[in-house]
Amino acid sequence: MKTVLILCGGKSEEHEISLISAHYVLEALDRNLFKPVVVGISRKGKWYLEDEKAFFKGPVRADKISLNEDAPSVQLSPFTSDSGRGLLDVRGKKIEFDVVFPILHGPFGEDGTLQGLFDIVGVPYVGPNCGSSWICMDKGLTKVVCKYWGIRVADFVCISSMAELEQRTEEIAALGSTLFVKPARLGSSVGITKVKRPDELKPAVASAFKHDSKVLIERAIVGREIECAVLGLNRSPRAALPGEIVPNKTIGFYSYEAKYLLPDGAELFAPAQLNSSTTKAVQQFALNAFQRLECDGMARMDLFLEHPSGLLYLNEANTIPGFTPISMYPKLWLASGLTYTQLITELLNLAFARVNPSNPSL
Predict the structure, then answer these.
(1) Are the beta carbons of 86 and 95 closer than 8 angstroms?
(2) Which residues contact 115 (CB under 8 A, 6 or more apart)?
């Protein structure tokens, strides 16, 4: 039996979503194959060894849940054990683990920093490596790489200050009358504003700068929001049946509130109602983006299917997608014939396979 270090919480604004995802991953873990060790990371970056049945307080809701910080503090050893396993130090007691499942969304978890740490320690982990994670976390860099490889993305402008907003007015005006303003390196739609009038742009940019020092301004694509889950090593990934998100018309887009707080914030279709040729086109587009962005293990590719052109655009790549009950990544694999438990098992197997290609199974 392998021991899985499940990391959750973290310093980002997606802290609560991480706790919810971890809760459901633990429920789905195959206990005949894996033994979990849960470590919760506080908003201040402190690590705690958690009791898996009491690692959070409050109901399983994004606006109510919080990490249990009464647990013992824990430190990660920079060295592996004599048997090559990872080591945690809890008040002088050593706990070994075989593989890491980082369920940390946003900065300091999904952006490559944690992945680089485990590369240095020398233990396998679920999801893409440090470099891929960093690129995919940064929506601006993702678009630059995709444009190089001929993967269609919406026209955009990246800025790093309010002064730059004033300096690049012509470029921004060329994007069109309806825009999306986003923190470049955050997920779960935190800090995103849909701008429909010129006087809304400056407040939207100022709001985004509250969350990040880099802001993305992009042309709004009119069409359907399609998501495609990808699973596998970079050399041989496969795509699930695509899904579709239809946001509540009153809200106007798939915001944080629509995702996690409002019961009627959006309708989720898994799979999407697409004809076979469009389904194949979406899957191939997602697989191409997965490989060109050098992803490994898993990623959810969020796309737009433009109306009326029928063209596909990559919106963003999520290297640690949500694992909550409403999250599309597990929903799409379930619709494609893979149960939640089977999905978690395969992801952990892929972590071992990447570091030991000659022996890819447990």
Answers:
(1) no
(2) 102, 125, 127, 128, 129, 130, 133
Each residue's pLDDT expressed in tens, for the chain with a length of 362 residues: 999 999 999 998 889 989 999 999 999 999 999 999 999 999 999 999 999 888 888 887 777 888 989 999 999 999 999 889 999 999 989 999 999 999 998 888 899 999 999 999 999 999 999 999 999 999 999 999 999 999 999 999 999 999 999 999 999 999 999 999 999 987 656 789 999 999 999 999 999 999 889 999 999 999 999 999 999 999 999 999 999 999 776 656 665 555 555 556 678 899 999 999 999 999 999 999 999 999 999 999 999 999 999 999 999 999 999 998 788 999 999 999 999 999 999 999 999 999 876 554 44
Q: What stretches of the chain show up as alpha helix (H) in DSSP?
A: 15-28, 113-121, 130-137, 139-148, 162-167, 169-173, 198-209, 256-260, 276-292, 328-335, 340-355
Cβ atoms of residues 7 and 103 within 8 Å: yes
pTM of the shown model: 0.90
Contacts of 248 by beta carbon, 8 Å cutoff, 6+ apart: 258, 262, 264, 265, 266
CA 349 to chain centre: 19
Taking alpha carbons only, the member of 138, 152, 197, 189 closest to residue 312 is 152
C-alpha span between 326 and 259 (Å, rounded): 8
